[in-house]
């Protein structure tokens, strides 16, 4: 007998990107940073481990919030830490959305939003992106029991951004809190952090998985006005960030020189990858993230994905209902991109 809730039984569940066990595979499918994190991270984690792990960690991650507050220009009580930004998304959903309330998000976008709404027993108010990756009136239209809206910015899989002024207009028009998911924002030209200061309903979530090369550490945070943070803190797990993660994350955000250098490398390779894919006949969006979205007008994206996989290169094949499919390619190190292009060129030209 299945004792799970009927709505849980009916769910498909979130499917993460493929994580191969072999070491010879070139992984360009999960938007990981191709470079090691700042050396200061390992040093900080080592010191924390040597100090002993027999005691519970600081439940609010004070050291991180203080250093992040300095970097971001906000008070520490405007920051809540999470076990990755996925934890932040979960906390926000549990804080604002009850059963049969409505959650709004755009599509194509981060598929976890759908899963979080389903877990909460919420109504999904899904708005389709325009073909130019803009959002129309539907995204701000009044809706019964609308309690929360998610906005990935930069968006995935497109890598596109809405400018802060556009997001501000959305936030002002919505009747509910807006969570701006800035997982990839360090690779972009703009961000929405200032909107938090001017609109009490705006939250900005970020992660250290991408630009800080700490996907394996699991650390994220949200910036919001203290009244919002106070309510979200009631919902989070008591010790949702462990002592090693807090130490490593604090060291990472402290090393802004490393971040600047790393982001510059990724952005340079992103430009080269986009140009090369364009020469192979793909339509590539103007990405502000650490990946590109590529669509070929005539070839099967699924077949290209499978052919590359058979030769040891993983990219992400993605299909969206009422939209279509394409390939999302993470920006790897230069030698990884060279290997991808060397395999992809004959596949494209041979068909």
TrEMBL record:
- Judging by the UniProt lineage, the source's domain of life is Bacteria
Tell me the Gene3D superfamilies matching this sequence. Aspartate Aminotransferase, domain 1, Type I PLP-dependent aspartate aminotransferase-like (Major domain)
Q: Name one GO molecular function term.
A: histidinol-phosphate transaminase activity
Q: Residue limits of the Aminotransferase class I/classII large domain?
A: 23-342
Instruction: Tell me the keywords, alphabetical order.
Output: Amino-acid biosynthesis, Aminotransferase, Histidine biosynthesis, Pyridoxal phosphate, Transferase
What cofactors does the UniProt entry give for this protein?
pyridoxal 5'-phosphate
Query: What is catalysed by this protein?
Result: L-histidinol phosphate + 2-oxoglutarate = 3-(imidazol-4-yl)-2-oxopropyl phosphate + L-glutamate
Pathway-wise, it operates in: Amino-acid biosynthesis; L-histidine biosynthesis; L-histidine from 5-phospho-alpha-D-ribose 1-diphosphate: step 7/9
Entry EC number(s): 2.6.1.9
Looking up PROSITE patterns in the UniProt record yields:
AA_TRANSFER_CLASS_2
Which class of enzymes does this protein belong to? transferase
At what positions is N6-(pyridoxal phosphate)lysine found?
A: 210
Per the UniProt entry, what is one GO biological process? L-histidine biosynthetic process
Q: Where is this region: Disordered?
A: 1-21
Question: Which Pfam families does this one have?
Answer: Aminotran_1_2
Report the SUPFAM superfamilies cross-referenced here: PLP-dependent transferases
Task: Kindly give the CDD domains that the UniProt entry links to this protein.
Answer: AAT_like
Q: Which PANTHER family match?
A: HISTIDINOL-PHOSPHATE AMINOTRANSFERASE, HISTIDINOL-PHOSPHATE AMINOTRANSFERASE 2
Q: Which family does it belong to?
A: Belongs to the class-II pyridoxal-phosphate-dependent aminotransferase family. Histidinol-phosphate aminotransferase subfamily.
Complex formation:
Homodimer.
Protein name per Swiss-Prot or TrEMBL: Histidinol-phosphate aminotransferase
User: From what organism does this protein derive?
Assistant: Posidoniimonas polymericola
